[in-house]
Automatic annotation (TrEMBL):
EC top class, as a word: transferase
Cross-referenced PROSITE patterns: UDPGT
Matching CDD domains: GT1_Gtf-like
Originating organism: Rehmannia glutinosa (Chinese foxglove)
Family of the protein in this entry: Belongs to the UDP-glycosyltransferase family.
InterPro entries membership: UDP_glucos_trans, UDP_glycos_trans_CS
The protein, known as: Glycosyltransferase
EC number: 2.4.1.-
Record keywords, A-Z: Glycosyltransferase, Transferase
Domain of life per record: Eukaryota
Amino acid sequence: MIRIIAIPDGLEMESGWKNQEKLHESVHRVMPGYLEDLLKKTNQTPQNRDDRISGVIVDSPLAWMMVIPKKMGLKIAVFWCSSPGCLALGFKIPELIEEKIIDNDGTPLNNKSIKLLPNMPEMTTTDLMWYFPGDKNIQKSIFHITKGTIHHTINNADWILCNWFTELDPTSHNLTPNILPIGPLLANGQSSGSFCPEDSTCLAWLNTQPKNSVIYVAFGSTSKFTHQQLDELANGLVLTGRPFLWVAWAGLVRDGPSPTYYIHNFMKRVGGQGKVVEWAPQEAVLAHPSVACFVTHCGWSSFMEGLSNGVPLVCWPYFGDQMYTKSCVCGGWRVGVCLEGGGDEGGIIWRDEIRDKIEEVLCDGIIRENALKLKEKARGSVGKGGASLVNLEYLVQQMKF
Protein backbone atom coordinates (compact mmCIF):
# COMPACT_ATOMS: atom_id res chain seq x y z
CA MET A 1 0.00 0.00 0.00
CA ILE A 2 3.05 2.28 -0.10
CA ARG A 3 4.36 3.81 -3.32
CA ILE A 4 7.86 5.24 -3.26
CA ILE A 5 8.60 8.03 -5.75
CA ALA A 6 11.98 9.74 -6.01
CA ILE A 7 12.17 13.51 -6.43
CA PRO A 8 15.48 14.70 -7.95
CA ASP A 9 17.71 16.99 -5.91
CA GLY A 10 19.54 18.30 -8.99
CA LEU A 11 22.82 16.53 -8.30
CA GLU A 12 24.46 13.50 -9.81
CA MET A 13 24.31 10.37 -7.68
CA GLU A 14 26.53 10.95 -4.60
CA SER A 15 28.55 13.66 -6.37
CA GLY A 16 27.24 16.56 -4.34
CA TRP A 17 26.45 14.92 -1.02
CA LYS A 18 29.88 15.67 0.43
CA ASN A 19 29.42 19.37 -0.28
CA GLN A 20 26.56 20.36 2.03
CA GLU A 21 26.41 23.95 0.76
CA LYS A 22 26.07 22.76 -2.84
CA LEU A 23 23.44 20.20 -1.81
CA HIS A 24 21.44 22.78 0.16
CA GLU A 25 21.41 25.20 -2.80
CA SER A 26 20.39 22.52 -5.29
CA VAL A 27 17.59 21.13 -3.11
CA HIS A 28 16.07 24.61 -2.71
CA ARG A 29 16.35 25.32 -6.44
CA VAL A 30 15.22 22.01 -7.91
CA MET A 31 12.96 20.05 -5.60
CA PRO A 32 9.97 22.43 -5.18
CA GLY A 33 9.09 22.26 -8.86
CA TYR A 34 9.14 18.47 -8.89
CA LEU A 35 7.04 18.27 -5.72
CA GLU A 36 4.41 20.66 -7.06
CA ASP A 37 4.29 18.80 -10.36
CA LEU A 38 3.87 15.46 -8.55
CA LEU A 39 1.04 16.73 -6.35
CA LYS A 40 -0.82 18.38 -9.23
CA LYS A 41 -0.54 15.50 -11.69
CA THR A 42 -1.51 12.92 -9.08
CA ASN A 43 -4.64 14.80 -8.05
CA GLN A 44 -5.70 15.92 -11.55
CA THR A 45 -5.72 12.45 -13.07
CA PRO A 46 -6.19 9.85 -10.31
CA GLN A 47 -7.17 6.34 -11.40
CA ASN A 48 -9.63 6.32 -8.51
CA ARG A 49 -10.45 8.44 -5.51
CA ASP A 50 -8.07 6.56 -3.21
CA ASP A 51 -5.12 7.56 -5.41
CA ARG A 52 -5.59 11.25 -4.65
CA ILE A 53 -3.23 12.91 -2.20
CA SER A 54 -5.15 14.41 0.71
CA GLY A 55 -2.31 15.20 3.08
CA VAL A 56 1.44 15.65 3.18
CA ILE A 57 3.92 14.83 5.97
CA VAL A 58 7.13 16.83 5.70
CA ASP A 59 10.40 16.17 7.50
CA SER A 60 11.31 19.26 9.53
CA PRO A 61 14.55 20.12 7.62
CA LEU A 62 12.32 20.50 4.52
CA ALA A 63 9.64 22.53 6.30
CA TRP A 64 10.08 25.39 3.83
CA MET A 65 8.47 23.16 1.16
CA MET A 66 5.16 23.18 3.06
CA VAL A 67 4.06 26.30 1.17
CA ILE A 68 3.47 24.10 -1.91
CA PRO A 69 0.83 21.72 -0.46
CA LYS A 70 -0.50 24.61 1.62
CA LYS A 71 -1.50 26.66 -1.44
CA MET A 72 -3.14 23.54 -2.89
CA GLY A 73 -5.39 23.20 0.16
CA LEU A 74 -3.85 19.94 1.37
CA LYS A 75 -3.52 19.00 5.02
CA ILE A 76 0.02 19.20 6.34
CA ALA A 77 1.93 17.61 9.20
CA VAL A 78 5.60 18.33 9.91
CA PHE A 79 7.72 15.63 11.54
CA TRP A 80 9.93 17.10 14.25
CA CYS A 81 12.91 14.77 14.52
CA SER A 82 14.44 16.14 17.74
CA SER A 83 13.63 16.60 21.42
CA PRO A 84 10.91 18.56 23.26
CA GLY A 85 13.55 20.96 24.57
CA CYS A 86 14.90 21.77 21.11
CA LEU A 87 11.37 22.39 19.82
CA ALA A 88 10.86 24.77 22.75
CA LEU A 89 14.15 26.45 21.84
CA GLY A 90 12.93 27.03 18.30
CA PHE A 91 9.75 28.71 19.54
CA LYS A 92 11.84 30.86 21.89
CA ILE A 93 14.23 32.28 19.24
CA PRO A 94 12.51 35.72 18.91
CA GLU A 95 12.54 36.12 22.69
CA LEU A 96 16.22 35.16 22.91
CA ILE A 97 17.11 37.78 20.30
CA GLU A 98 15.00 40.43 22.04
CA GLU A 99 16.62 39.67 25.42
CA LYS A 100 20.07 39.83 23.76
CA ILE A 101 21.00 36.29 24.74
CA ILE A 102 21.82 35.66 21.06
CA ASP A 103 22.28 38.01 18.12
CA ASN A 104 20.36 37.89 14.83
CA ASP A 105 22.66 35.13 13.55
CA GLY A 106 22.30 32.95 16.66
CA THR A 107 25.70 33.79 18.18
CA PRO A 108 25.57 33.72 22.01
CA LEU A 109 26.09 37.17 23.54
CA ASN A 110 26.42 35.96 27.14
CA ASN A 111 26.53 32.77 29.19
CA LYS A 112 23.00 33.03 30.57
CA SER A 113 21.21 29.70 30.87
CA ILE A 114 17.81 29.30 29.20
CA LYS A 115 14.79 27.71 30.87
CA LEU A 116 12.85 25.88 28.15
CA LEU A 117 10.51 23.44 29.92
CA PRO A 118 9.56 23.30 33.61
CA ASN A 119 10.77 19.74 34.29
CA MET A 120 13.94 19.76 32.20
CA PRO A 121 17.42 21.19 32.86
CA GLU A 122 18.23 24.70 31.71
CA MET A 123 20.02 24.93 28.37
CA THR A 124 23.44 26.57 28.32
CA THR A 125 24.51 28.62 25.31
CA THR A 126 26.95 25.84 24.35
CA ASP A 127 23.95 23.45 24.15
CA LEU A 128 22.21 25.54 21.47
CA MET A 129 21.59 23.13 18.60
CA TRP A 130 23.23 25.47 16.08
CA TYR A 131 26.27 26.18 18.27
CA PHE A 132 29.42 25.52 16.24
CA PRO A 133 32.33 27.64 17.50
CA GLY A 134 34.79 26.10 15.07
CA ASP A 135 33.05 27.63 12.04
CA LYS A 136 30.85 30.72 12.41
CA ASN A 137 29.50 30.36 8.87
CA ILE A 138 28.19 26.85 9.61
CA GLN A 139 26.72 28.11 12.89
CA LYS A 140 24.97 30.99 11.11
CA SER A 141 23.62 28.67 8.42
CA ILE A 142 22.23 26.12 10.89
CA PHE A 143 20.66 28.89 12.98
CA HIS A 144 18.78 30.37 10.03
CA ILE A 145 17.67 26.92 8.87
CA THR A 146 16.32 26.26 12.39
CA LYS A 147 14.63 29.66 12.53
CA GLY A 148 13.08 29.11 9.09
CA THR A 149 11.90 25.62 10.04
CA ILE A 150 10.04 26.96 13.06
CA HIS A 151 8.59 29.87 11.05
CA HIS A 152 7.16 27.56 8.38
CA THR A 153 5.96 25.10 11.01
CA ILE A 154 4.02 27.79 12.89
CA ASN A 155 2.52 29.28 9.75
CA ASN A 156 1.83 26.24 7.59
CA ALA A 157 1.59 23.00 9.59
CA ASP A 158 -1.74 21.66 10.80
CA TRP A 159 0.07 19.28 13.16
CA ILE A 160 3.57 18.78 14.55
CA LEU A 161 4.37 15.07 14.78
CA CYS A 162 6.92 14.23 17.48
CA ASN A 163 8.91 11.08 18.13
CA TRP A 164 8.32 11.07 21.86
CA PHE A 165 5.52 10.08 24.24
CA THR A 166 3.51 12.41 26.44
CA GLU A 167 4.86 11.08 29.75
CA LEU A 168 8.43 11.87 28.68
CA ASP A 169 7.62 15.56 29.13
CA PRO A 170 3.92 16.34 29.70
CA THR A 171 4.56 20.11 29.61
CA SER A 172 5.78 20.04 26.00
CA HIS A 173 2.16 20.07 24.84
CA ASN A 174 1.87 23.61 26.23
CA LEU A 175 4.19 24.91 23.51
CA THR A 176 1.40 24.79 20.93
CA PRO A 177 -1.93 22.93 20.84
CA ASN A 178 -1.24 21.12 17.53
CA ILE A 179 1.59 18.91 18.86
CA LEU A 180 0.94 15.20 18.37
CA PRO A 181 3.40 12.92 20.20
CA ILE A 182 3.34 9.61 18.29
CA GLY A 183 6.49 7.98 19.65
CA PRO A 184 8.39 5.95 20.21
CA LEU A 185 8.54 5.09 16.51
CA LEU A 186 9.79 1.52 16.55
CA ALA A 187 9.99 -1.27 13.99
CA ASN A 188 9.24 -3.96 16.61
CA GLY A 189 12.09 -6.20 15.56
CA GLN A 190 11.52 -5.78 11.82
CA SER A 191 13.94 -4.05 9.46
CA SER A 192 12.98 -0.40 9.14
CA GLY A 193 15.41 0.31 6.34
CA SER A 194 18.94 1.67 6.49
CA PHE A 195 21.31 3.64 4.29
CA CYS A 196 24.03 1.12 5.20
CA PRO A 197 23.94 -2.69 4.97
CA GLU A 198 23.20 -4.09 8.44
CA ASP A 199 25.44 -6.85 9.77
CA SER A 200 23.04 -9.20 11.54
CA THR A 201 25.84 -11.57 12.61
CA CYS A 202 26.14 -9.44 15.73
CA LEU A 203 22.77 -10.82 16.91
CA ALA A 204 24.12 -14.37 16.84
CA TRP A 205 27.17 -13.16 18.78
CA LEU A 206 24.92 -11.49 21.36
CA ASN A 207 23.15 -14.84 21.83
CA THR A 208 26.41 -16.26 23.20
CA GLN A 209 26.83 -13.55 25.85
CA PRO A 210 25.44 -13.53 29.42
CA LYS A 211 22.36 -11.47 30.22
CA ASN A 212 23.03 -7.76 30.94
CA SER A 213 26.75 -8.06 30.15
CA VAL A 214 27.43 -6.37 26.80
CA ILE A 215 28.46 -2.76 26.23
CA TYR A 216 26.90 -1.56 22.96
CA VAL A 217 28.80 1.30 21.30
CA ALA A 218 27.41 3.24 18.33
CA PHE A 219 27.64 6.88 17.24
CA GLY A 220 25.31 7.16 14.26
CA SER A 221 26.59 8.50 10.96
CA THR A 222 27.60 12.03 12.02
CA SER A 223 30.18 11.71 14.81
CA LYS A 224 33.82 11.97 13.77
CA PHE A 225 36.87 10.93 15.83
CA THR A 226 40.59 11.49 15.51
CA HIS A 227 42.76 8.39 15.39
CA GLN A 228 43.97 9.23 18.89
CA GLN A 229 40.40 9.31 20.20
CA LEU A 230 39.62 6.07 18.39
CA ASP A 231 42.55 4.46 20.18
CA GLU A 232 41.39 5.77 23.58
CA LEU A 233 37.89 4.43 22.99
CA ALA A 234 39.18 1.02 21.96
CA ASN A 235 41.43 0.73 24.98
CA GLY A 236 38.74 2.04 27.32
CA LEU A 237 36.47 -0.79 26.21
CA VAL A 238 39.25 -3.32 26.83
CA LEU A 239 39.84 -1.92 30.32
CA THR A 240 36.25 -2.65 31.35
CA GLY A 241 36.95 -6.37 31.02
CA ARG A 242 33.40 -6.73 29.70
CA PRO A 243 32.15 -7.96 26.31
CA PHE A 244 31.39 -5.17 23.85
CA LEU A 245 29.68 -4.72 20.50
CA TRP A 246 31.10 -1.71 18.63
CA VAL A 247 29.64 -0.17 15.46
CA ALA A 248 32.69 1.34 13.73
CA TRP A 249 31.63 2.42 10.26
CA ALA A 250 34.05 3.60 7.57
CA GLY A 251 33.31 7.31 8.11
CA LEU A 252 34.02 7.34 11.86
CA VAL A 253 37.54 8.83 11.54
CA ARG A 254 37.95 12.38 10.28
CA ASP A 255 41.74 12.75 10.04
CA GLY A 256 42.82 9.95 7.79
CA PRO A 257 41.91 6.66 6.16
CA SER A 258 39.08 4.34 7.13
CA PRO A 259 39.51 2.76 10.58
CA THR A 260 39.29 -0.72 9.05
CA TYR A 261 43.02 -1.53 9.35
CA TYR A 262 43.21 -0.29 12.94
CA ILE A 263 40.08 -2.21 13.93
CA HIS A 264 41.40 -5.40 12.32
CA ASN A 265 44.61 -5.28 14.37
CA PHE A 266 42.72 -4.25 17.50
CA MET A 267 40.37 -7.23 17.25
CA LYS A 268 43.27 -9.62 16.78
CA ARG A 269 44.61 -8.30 20.09
CA VAL A 270 41.40 -8.48 22.13
CA GLY A 271 40.10 -11.75 20.71
CA GLY A 272 36.70 -12.85 21.90
CA GLN A 273 36.07 -9.97 24.30
CA GLY A 274 34.35 -7.94 21.63
CA LYS A 275 32.78 -7.81 18.19
CA VAL A 276 33.03 -4.93 15.71
CA VAL A 277 30.62 -4.41 12.82
CA GLU A 278 30.32 -1.59 10.31
CA TRP A 279 26.56 -1.20 10.85
CA ALA A 280 24.10 -2.97 13.12
CA PRO A 281 20.33 -3.57 13.27
CA GLN A 282 20.26 -1.21 16.22
CA GLU A 283 16.73 -1.65 17.50
CA ALA A 284 17.14 -5.43 17.58
CA VAL A 285 20.49 -5.04 19.33
CA LEU A 286 19.08 -2.76 22.02
CA ALA A 287 16.19 -5.17 22.60
CA HIS A 288 18.57 -8.09 23.15
CA PRO A 289 18.71 -9.29 26.78
CA SER A 290 22.52 -9.45 26.80
CA VAL A 291 22.91 -5.67 26.26
CA ALA A 292 23.67 -3.84 29.53
CA CYS A 293 24.32 -0.26 28.42
CA PHE A 294 24.56 1.94 25.33
CA VAL A 295 27.50 4.28 24.63
CA THR A 296 25.81 6.77 22.30
CA HIS A 297 26.17 10.11 20.52
CA CYS A 298 22.68 11.01 21.83
CA GLY A 299 21.02 11.29 18.46
CA TRP A 300 17.31 11.56 19.20
CA SER A 301 16.27 8.38 17.38
CA SER A 302 19.06 6.41 19.07
CA PHE A 303 18.02 7.81 22.44
CA MET A 304 14.39 6.82 21.91
CA GLU A 305 15.39 3.31 20.81
CA GLY A 306 17.58 2.89 23.87
CA LEU A 307 14.97 4.29 26.23
CA SER A 308 12.21 2.13 24.74
CA ASN A 309 14.26 -0.94 25.61
CA GLY A 310 15.19 0.20 29.12
CA VAL A 311 18.92 0.43 28.32
CA PRO A 312 20.98 2.90 30.44
CA LEU A 313 23.08 5.35 28.44
CA VAL A 314 26.64 6.63 28.44
CA CYS A 315 26.41 9.96 26.61
CA TRP A 316 29.08 11.09 24.15
CA PRO A 317 27.42 13.86 22.08
CA TYR A 318 29.09 15.32 19.02
CA PHE A 319 27.00 18.17 17.64
CA GLY A 320 23.63 19.91 17.38
CA ASP A 321 20.66 18.74 19.44
CA GLN A 322 22.76 15.90 20.87
CA MET A 323 24.28 18.29 23.42
CA TYR A 324 21.01 19.15 25.12
CA THR A 325 19.73 15.57 24.87
CA LYS A 326 22.77 14.64 26.96
CA SER A 327 21.76 17.20 29.60
CA CYS A 328 18.23 15.79 29.76
CA VAL A 329 19.43 12.17 29.89
CA CYS A 330 21.76 12.87 32.82
CA GLY A 331 20.05 15.73 34.65
CA GLY A 332 16.38 15.44 33.66
CA TRP A 333 15.29 11.83 33.22
CA ARG A 334 18.43 10.47 34.92
CA VAL A 335 18.75 7.42 32.72
CA GLY A 336 22.46 7.78 31.97
CA VAL A 337 25.83 9.36 32.67
CA CYS A 338 27.94 11.82 30.67
CA LEU A 339 31.49 11.61 29.40
CA GLU A 340 33.10 14.99 30.04
CA GLY A 341 36.72 14.75 28.90
CA GLY A 342 39.71 16.22 30.66
CA GLY A 343 39.29 19.77 29.42
CA ASP A 344 42.57 19.57 27.50
CA GLU A 345 43.09 21.44 24.26
CA GLY A 346 42.45 18.40 22.10
CA GLY A 347 39.19 17.58 23.83
CA ILE A 348 40.23 13.95 24.22
CA ILE A 349 38.14 11.63 26.38
CA TRP A 350 40.68 9.28 27.90
CA ARG A 351 40.40 5.53 28.28
CA ASP A 352 40.23 5.64 32.09
CA GLU A 353 37.18 7.92 32.04
CA ILE A 354 35.49 5.71 29.44
CA ARG A 355 36.02 2.67 31.67
CA ASP A 356 34.93 4.51 34.83
CA LYS A 357 31.72 5.95 33.33
CA ILE A 358 30.69 2.59 31.92
CA GLU A 359 31.21 1.03 35.34
CA GLU A 360 29.27 3.88 36.95
CA VAL A 361 26.20 3.43 34.76
CA LEU A 362 26.24 -0.33 35.18
CA CYS A 363 26.41 -0.09 38.97
CA ASP A 364 23.81 2.67 39.45
CA GLY A 365 20.55 1.01 40.44
CA ILE A 366 18.58 4.27 40.28
CA ILE A 367 19.55 4.85 36.65
CA ARG A 368 18.52 1.33 35.69
CA GLU A 369 15.26 1.68 37.61
CA ASN A 370 14.47 4.99 35.88
CA ALA A 371 15.26 3.47 32.47
CA LEU A 372 12.94 0.52 33.08
CA LYS A 373 10.12 2.80 34.28
CA LEU A 374 10.36 4.95 31.14
CA LYS A 375 10.53 1.80 29.02
CA GLU A 376 7.16 0.72 30.38
CA LYS A 377 5.65 4.15 29.75
CA ALA A 378 7.10 4.25 26.23
CA ARG A 379 5.73 0.82 25.36
CA GLY A 380 2.38 1.62 26.92
CA SER A 381 2.03 4.76 24.86
CA VAL A 382 2.08 2.81 21.58
CA GLY A 383 0.00 -0.07 22.90
CA LYS A 384 -3.77 -0.38 22.64
CA GLY A 385 -5.36 2.74 24.10
CA GLY A 386 -1.97 4.43 24.58
CA ALA A 387 -1.74 8.18 23.99
CA SER A 388 0.70 7.95 21.06
CA LEU A 389 -1.40 5.33 19.26
CA VAL A 390 -4.54 7.41 19.82
CA ASN A 391 -2.74 10.44 18.33
CA LEU A 392 -1.61 8.40 15.33
CA GLU A 393 -5.12 7.09 14.71
CA TYR A 394 -6.43 10.65 14.98
CA LEU A 395 -3.88 11.81 12.39
CA VAL A 396 -4.92 9.06 9.99
CA GLN A 397 -8.57 10.08 10.23
CA GLN A 398 -7.77 13.78 9.78
CA MET A 399 -5.57 13.15 6.74
CA LYS A 400 -8.37 11.46 4.85
CA PHE A 401 -10.56 13.42 2.41
